[in-house]
Target: tRNA (guanosine(18)-2'-O)-methyltransferase
Amino acid sequence: MTDLKLLEHLETYLTEHRKQRFENVLSQRTKHFTVATEDVYQLHNTSAVIRSCDVFGIQEVNIVEEQNSKRIDREIAMGSQKWVDLNRYKTVHDCINDLKEKGYQIVATTPHTNDTLLHEFDVTKKSCFFFGRETEGLSKEVLDAADCYLKIPMVGFTESLNISVSAAIILQHVTTKLKQTDIDWQLTEIEKQEKRFDWIKKTIKSYDDIVNRYYNNK
Amino acid sequence: MTDLKLLEHLETYLTEHRKQRFENVLSQRTKHFTVATEDVYQLHNTSAVIRSCDVFGIQEVNIVEEQNSKRIDREIAMGSQKWVDLNRYKTVHDCINDLKEKGYQIVATTPHTNDTLLHEFDVTKKSCFFFGRETEGLSKEVLDAADCYLKIPMVGFTESLNISVSAAIILQHVTTKLKQTDIDWQLTEIEKQEKRFDWIKKTIKSYDDIVNRYYNNK
Model:
């Protein structure tokens, strides 16, 4: 599937600095954890979640857009979505099925359910963290399907944090803790190759020309 | 200074639920850590930092407003500033002096200085976490005065988090860790009494009438 000779050739178009950057980022990417957002209305929240995924090395984000599909597009076109993979779903049902097939447990992040506290969360399990709507929270469907309810302990008068802040706290915590375990959390070699191609394609403007010339000269 | 009989009388005007809430929140409040913001322009960032302080039990927030004094007022009038104490300073110099006199080490939170990583930070020291301007970061004065540079490890292409997200991650982490130590981090009994008065004053509309009647009937 992947043409390693072509990849090598393409990489000669990158600066040494950029190439090294790709490798550094790739070495810290994981699919052990993933994130799902369910009909998040406030557009800056969606892009903030995507940015946090990039910052903390989460490669895949799942976006359920039962009600909001049109509005989200514009926003995510602006952010760091270039470097993470967005899986988009029309229904929660499809999203959850897909995640379960891939072996993820469903983790509902809810501010009011008194279940697992963040610092007690078992990071060894493949997990998808679900974040819900700003006011209504997660849908009944997600809550019913959840294997685990995760809570950030809060001790003040204010009893909630916004989605982008919750996501950042959770992702920072679980990825830091994951890297202290001996779990095999990194991307596979094949997944890394795919991302190298993908990122080069998004970086080099004349990608198509270079690939065409490469095959014509072969 | 504090009239405990008056406090007892005032508390009869609170519902049992509210009284219990005050005690729960008070029992988790700390001055072992505090936060300082330096000329933060984006108003929603200041109030998000204040909200995070409330959520994670930080009782005091220090606000330096060398350049921005007028604009911040409006915003902080809306948030959870009712429950935390705001110390306002016209100069960084005054703020740092005051904090040092109170025994705090100055912790500069900077995304680009490669020093202490968050999960390695020593929570046993009394610390003030400084957050700077959105684009310029912290001033040279804060960086020069800092005892410690704290960094949230980031492993993606995006190399920064916004102030409100950074503050929330740091405060969540250090307060959780602090509570796992045997450090004496809680408010003193006198500090708690002061907050009980203060919070009752902010809760009961007819506070002044009640106090006047109390003293007249004595």
